Amino acid sequence: MKEKIISKASELFLKLGFKSVTMDDIAGEMCISKKTIYKYFCNKEVLIEESTSLVHTQVHQIIDSIVAKNHNAIHENFEIREMFCEMFKNNIDSSPIYQLKKHYPEIYHNIMSQEIDLCSQWFRDNIAKGIEQNLYRADLNVEVYVKFYYILIFHINENTVSEKEAQSIELEALEYHTRAMATAEGIVELEKQLKKFTT
């Protein structure tokens, strides 16, 4: 039952926002009593912590599955961005990350400290792959570009209220990031991906 509550809560938090969803809403959606939820979670904050942890795990499992498909480095980045768009497609009015930072800053900082480490490693691996495939320049300072990109992405998500707007800016950031690193061959692949994912 605990896992079912976390799963339903995660779904509602991402769809309607961390602030607006109440324990009553979750109980109503599941056709259980609020008392049953409190049997497993002493308050809403604990449930949010568990829910964000679940989403964090799911996101990284999906990223791993995309990486395992062995697309080229630029295609891989676009696939992952598409996955995030799909994941948050029902929440175009309010960015979940923005809400989490605004209303539950401690939970936000805990999850972000893990995210930065994991995302930095993924960005690092992607750049190494792109250099190997001659899509990114061999003379890149990889650590600097990793830092540039995660500052860009996290800044967008932390400071953009609308999820729809955040996704639009993220696409611009991905193009900016890729063009800054790309070889002539990489630019051709970038244009191909932009055409595919923006039409």
Automatic annotation (TrEMBL):
Domain of life: Bacteria
Database matches in Gene3D superfamilies: Tetracycline Repressor, domain 2 (1.10.357.10)
Keywords: DNA-binding
InterPro entries: Homeodomain-like_sf, HTH-type_Tx_Regulator, HTH_TetR
Ranges for domain HTH tetR-type: 1-59
Keyword Phosphoprotein in annotation: no
DNA-binding region ranges: 22-41
PANTHER family recorded: ACREF/ENVCD OPERON REPRESSOR-RELATED, ACREF_ENVCD OPERON REPRESSOR-RELATED
Protein name: TetR/AcrR family transcriptional regulator
Organism field: Flavobacterium cupriresistens
